[in-house]
Amino acid sequence: MGKFGLASYIARCTQLAMCLEVSASPKPGNIDRQDDYEDTRYEHFLASAVSIYPVIEEASGREYGIGRAIKDAVTESTGWQKGGNTHFGAIILLVPLAMAAGKILAGKDTFAISELTTCAHEIVKGTCVEDAVDFYSCFETAGVRVNPAEEYDLRDSSAAGELLEKNVSLYDLMEIARGYDMIANEWTSGFPRCAECAEMIIKGMNGRITPGPGADINDVIVYTFLHILSGNEDTFITTKFDARTANYVSGHAGSIIEKMKNLRELHKIYNNGHEFDAVRPLIKEMDRELLERKINPGSTADIVIAGLFISLLGGLRY
């Protein structure tokens, strides 16, 4: 872990994961080093990534207080930039994963991905009503767009009092939302997409999957992003638009992934990874379309950040 200790190592892995994800390009529909939105820029995401260092450093040394850590991270993120909600979903994933990393790596130097996600799942199941109340207080601060809900509506100012009255934990809230929210589903199902991302990134950097031998970190992140998007309806798109739009975007990503698979079969005798370069124009075309329509798969980006964090924590270097 180096002379600066475990907590610093975990926090720096978090920061680097956030910076790498937002820098990857072309990443269809999302802000990256090539593309900004009118009110939110690439630099806002960098500021957010830098800002949460002390929160993650502190959180990695304990197993409780997830709600407070999420609230602190959101406060720091919004306090260091004026671009609005940059990393809310990612923070919800990174805090328990960082706590799990601190617990596991306090006694040894290595870990299995499944070990980390299982530990994180146990930690989130231990949340309490105070975590839920702290979590609810984040939404106005972060300016997060939410779906209407029949139970404990985030847009209802009396919801926090109802949580206290009924002793509803933060995990209980995630259970309610798991059917229509990717991030909530990660919490309640044991972070499977985060683990999948980590495994894909590690294999990609080792040349075992597309983009192929000699691939750089940028292309591996873009491929992983498209792969996760192709198989999952992005919550951010569904909330901002509708399920039909989200499914269209997933289908578009899937067609690119399928094209790469076909090219890989065609070129497998050479194992040269040229299939990614062959579809790069298609990825750029998808990126232009989504940017013009202001369709941004933000939840997919959050999952990829978590996968990058796990990969870096395990020693991935590029």
TrEMBL record:
GO MF annotations in UniProt: ATP binding; triphosphoribosyl-dephospho-CoA synthase activity
The organism's place on the tree of life at top rank: Archaea
Stored InterPro entries: CitG
PANTHER family xrefs: CITG FAMILY PROTEIN
Name of the protein: Fumarate hydratase
Organism: Methanolobus chelungpuianus
